[in-house]
Amino acid sequence: MFRSFPAICFLLMVSARAAFADVNSQLDANNVIWNVPGPTSSQSMPVGNGDIGLNVWVETNGDLVFYIGKTDSWNQDVNGDQGLMKVGGVRVSLNPSPLAGGATFLQTLKLRTGEIQIQEGTTTLRVWVDANNPVIRIEANHAQPRSLTVSLNNWRAPSAREVTLSGQTNRIAWYHRNPANASPHVANLTFGAVIKGKGLVSQNDSTLTSAAPAVSQLVSIYPLTATTSGADEWLAQLDQKIVQIDKLKLEQTREAHQKWWDEFWHRSWVFVSGDQDATNATQGCVLQRFITACGGRGAYPIKFNGSIFIVDNPGSRQGNGRPTRAMSADQRTWGGQYWFQNTRAMYWPRLMAGDFDIMMPLFKMYAGQLAPNAVQVNGYYHHQGSYFAETAPFWGGLRYWGPEVKEDWTGHYFTPILELSMMMLDYYEYTGDKKFAKETLVPVASAGLT
Question: Which of 112, 191, 215, 376 could bridge across to 225 with cysteines, CB 3.0–4.6 Å?
Fold first, then answer.
């Protein structure tokens, strides 16, 4: 009997390795592959690191174009349709174009490694957002030397709040800054980025180009959101982060990035075999989990109305004949507030998936609303405890909804705190995290039951 124990262990190890290998092959089978260019943002692919997200597409001329989203790039009017804005847009052009002469095109969302790979003839482009560092990487490799041009694609009108910095040497720097008289929760908040790359020189304030053609290029983009006394302080903070990131070796950060995604996919998996419906359901499940990971580890929870992956809309007529207005990539219907009924649906599945890290921004945001909301509850109703509004900006806040107030859609929906407490209780049951139970679960549940 005892002699069989090593054999059993060996068989279990072999079985586990086989299961892991099968996960990899199943993921590869669910990659999204396109064989024609975009040509617009409506045909874009998402990729991200949990805080920084890209919408990536290729135009028919071979240009690589993408929007940059971020979980904390809040505009001053959080309640409006531009509450959570884009950091910006970027265009990468190659000369001569790899697609000239009818060259083959292939764009692949590689789930297992968390990247987009684009084949334009003999040119390969790799686009990824480092899972462990706040940096976007675009790697270009060519069979023959080519020139690369990268430019800022800014659709916003220049102003004191929308600035592309001048005098930057061999880099592009831009930012959006909220005014000092905005809500104190977003006042003086600045978000933007710096673009630079080896062998790239300034053509103008918003364009870099190759000093000489090369067979390989690397473009790096460093986004940052910070509340600062001025734009100079924001840029100084970003420069410090750039120095830290640039000390890292690209190959090692790429390996660590791929390791993060490998471990993520091996937390849990569901692959259903059978007919086409089973195949479609499996891919839908896999892709939903992927995009949740791409936008779910940032400073704030996932926005139910597009996460950080909204794109521009030129306007159209819906099937019912009602026209839709044109919207920029900064705008989203249903605004910048969080709606609990819609937000919760993205988080309940995280429990069984084992994606506990993705749940923390949700718990952190609502726990942060507890104390200020309690002050309002006491002032309105002369009662202890607290609750969360169905719709509220990320810092919370309540309106008076006594029994004499006429219903206003979700005004009398007082129970989000109860459902969130149940979710937190399940989280504790799954993780056994006593620190979380003491510091977050018990205070939230107690406030809701007081």
Answer: 191
